[in-house]
Every structure is written in C-alpha cells, then in structure tokens.
Amino acid sequence: MHSRFIEAFALLPAALQTALEPLLSHDDFPAMLTAAQVADVCAQTGLDDDALAFALLPLAAACSITPISHFHVGAVARGVSGDVYFGANMEFSGASMQQTVHAEQSAVTHAWLRGEAKLASITVNYTPCGHCRQFMNELNSGTALNIHLPGRDVATLGDYLPYSFGPRDLDIATLLMDKFDHGYTLDETDALSKQALQACNQSHAPYSQSHSGIALETHSGKIFAGRYAENAAFNPSLPPLQGALILLNLAGEDYLNVRRAVLIERSQPLVSQRDATRSTLAAIGCTELTALTL
Ligand SMILES: O=c1ccn([C@H]2C[C@H](O)[C@@H](CO)O2)c(=O)[nH]1
Ligand SMILES: [Zn+2]
Q1: pTM listed for this prediction
Q2: Which of 112, 139, 206, 290 is most buried (CB neighbours < 10 A)?
Q3: ipTM of the assembly?
C-alpha cells in the first residue's frame, strides 16, 4: 500500500478495510474505483454509493500536498459511468498562490483526464469555496451536479451558487468535459510532445481560443498529460500544468520527480501559459521545459 494511505486506511471500519485491501494493496492504485469495484465494495460492506463516497474521503484527503496550509481537503467525484475519482488539494511552496489546486478541481480534472463524459455528484469533506463553485459551474453537468457534504442534506450546485454567472452569459455552449478535438497537428514525434499535443487538442478554452496542453515525464519515465480548463469567470481557470500534476499526484508519484516537460500552445496566444508554467515547474525543481507553438 502507498505510504500516504496507511494512517487513513487504519481508521476505516473493519469491513471496509477488508473490501478495499485488494485494491489499495497495489502500489499503483490509481486513486479511483471503477463502477464494478464500487458495486463490489458496496455489496461487501452494506454501504450505499453515497455512504461509500463519504467513507473514502479520508483516503482522498491523504493525497493532499499542503506545505503552506497543512489543511487536507479530499473530494470524491462520481461520473455518470459510475466510476469514482479521488481529488485532493495541492500547494506549491515557492510559487504564487494562484498555482494552488483545490480538492474539487483535482477530482473534477481527474475524472476529465481519465475520459469520464459527465459528473453526477461530488462529495467533499469541507464546504466548497466560492472559487470551486465557480470552477464547477463550467461543467457539462451544469447546476444539476449533486454536492454531498458532511452533516448536510444533498443539494445541487445550483443551490450552492444562486444567481450564478457562467458560460451561457458569454454565449458559450461547449462546456467542460464535453468531448472535442481541435485538430492541431505538429511534426514532433517524441512521446512527450505527442501527448502534449493530444492534451492541447482536448483542452477547453472557448473564451480565448488559447488552447494548450502539457506532458510531464518523471525520473521513472512515466508520462502525465494535462489540458487547459478555462472558466467563464477567467480567474478560476486551471492551467494545463495543474491538470498534469493532479494526475501525477493521484497516480502516487511525487511532484518533485518531474524531469522534463513539453508545453504546447498556439503562437501569440491571447492567453499564454508559458511563463507561469516555467516558474511553477522551477518551484518544484524542474527546469527542463520545452515550449512548442502551433
Ligand atoms: O473549497 C476548498 C477550499 C480550500 N481548499 C484548499 C486550498 C488550499 O490548499 C487550502 C486552504 O485554503 O484548502 C480546497 O481544496 N477546497
Ligand atoms: Zn475551493
């Protein structure tokens, strides 16, 4: 079992420990459960889907990296496929506050990067901040997304974000997690560039059209790609680097092990990721960034 889970796992009810043990005992547990695994764990423990999501929160929160706040937020997003995805907050010492990833953003992005089509619900161990509510208002599940919080009845994003501002206010119809391919091509043939290009092609940037994607390679040779997720209110947009680091972290890798990165964006974009990406990568000890333009 990955060392980060040991303490939280030991505090789970015995029946849940028994049901989860075969999944978590692998070092490469992907911080998600498939619909079939969820059904199996529910059958073994007698928990329903929602109770299981709450019970998993301490494991999700154990994935947080919080050198600044030491405040561990965990989230569990459920896709319409029935698969569930962990999320956890990530902080970067030596970078700007704006580089922080919230647990809700982590869970949502985790689901998106793994190809989930739409979210049905999200369960979080603390109330989502205004920034997260706005971030989630970009999703193709819209204000119908169910939000489960400890000690509260289930409510929708619409309940938590009344009089909301969102994509429709800017006449945008393509929403976060909708599938698309922007069709950019590039002659580069190395694996990292190819994955960065694919991420760029799947990025969500309907406001600026400044599509971008990144791929990170770790010292162990693994590759993690992230797509830009733009937001109607602009500031809650999530840069591609954050997407890739979310996936890397949830896969059990250490973000200090990023060896090199390829960022792909358009030439002279209205919104550029390059400088912030370079500076955040430097804060986590990676100075090998190749920035390619389309
Ligand atoms: O909705 C929220 C509010 C805060 N945090 C994180 C961000 C930061 O790492 C820490 C303190 O704000 O908690 C979340 O993950 N979600
Ligand atoms: Zn938040």
Answers
A1: 0.98
A2: 112
A3: 0.99
